[in-house]
Amino acid sequence: MVNPAVLFDIDGTLVDTNYLHVHAWHRAFVEVGVQVESWRIHHRIGMDGGSLLEELLPDASEDEKSRAKDLHTQYYQESSGLIRPLASGRKLLDAVAELGLQVVLATSAPENELAILRDVLDEEDVVSAVTSSEDVETAKPRPDIVAVALERAGVPAERAVFVGDTVWDVRAAARAGVECIALRSGGIGERELSAEGAVTVFDDPDDLRKGLRDSPIGKLAALAN
User: Fold this and answer.
1) Rounded to an integer, what distance in angstroms lies between the CA atom of residue 6 and that of residue 149?
2) Helix (H) or strand (E) holding 63
3) Residues 138-175: pLDDT tens digits?
């Protein structure tokens, strides 16, 4: 039987990028001539890009939304030199692999952004499967990306745990029937993450690594071959 899998979001979960995304979106909106406060952007980081634009620019034309999306990509890539793994992000992946569990990068990042993130993580030797925005029409909070990750890992929902940092991660995992561990490293508070259905909340990858065996991941390891 295939070993159980831990599905990891990347942005804000393993690498410190959420606020870079906020800044890139803010610059993009200024460039297209609309004002959107940064806190409103931040709360939607991790949401599908099209859905984010629908919520934040409901009255904008499709051309304006498309331009904003392209500018966000441009500005984010310009800041890519600032991207760093979060505390123990790499060590967490190693620890999960050492438990005999599959490590799956279940992200909805576009391929060009994903390439940057994978390069920063530099953990290809422990990763068994990867998803990207090209795998689904609409990403989080829809469960589609989680379903694709489960399929690629070859496991049912009950033999997986999702690790994310936003309410969109928690919702997507719940809709796919997968327990979700949430991290505060994306800038969302414990109370909000728990209210959405996170089974437990840790500060960051380092905090989760230290409590790994007592977490739902530790319980999942007991099912490994």
Assistant:
1) 10
2) helix 62-78
3) 677 889 999 999 999 999 999 999 999 999 999 999 99
Do residues 174 and 77 both lie within one domain? no
Over pLDDT 70: what percentage of the chain? 99
Measured CA angle at 92 (ends 90, 93), to 5 deg: 70
Distance of CA 164 to the CA centre of its chain: 5
Expressed as residue numbers, the domain containing 42 is 18-81
Q: Are 107 and 117 in contact (CB under 8 A)?
A: yes
CA 158 to chain centre: 20
pTM of the full structure: 0.95
Domain end call among 36, 59, 81: 81
What value does the mean pLDDT take over residues 78-103? 96
Distance (Å, whole) CA 89 – CA 104: 14
Q: Do residues 42 and 88 share a domain?
A: no
Amino acid type, 23 = H
Nearest residue to 87 (alpha-carbon basis) of 213, 216, 225, 204: 204
Q: Number of structural domains, the chain?
A: 2
Whether 58 and 88 share a structural domain? no
Give the amino acid at 122.
D
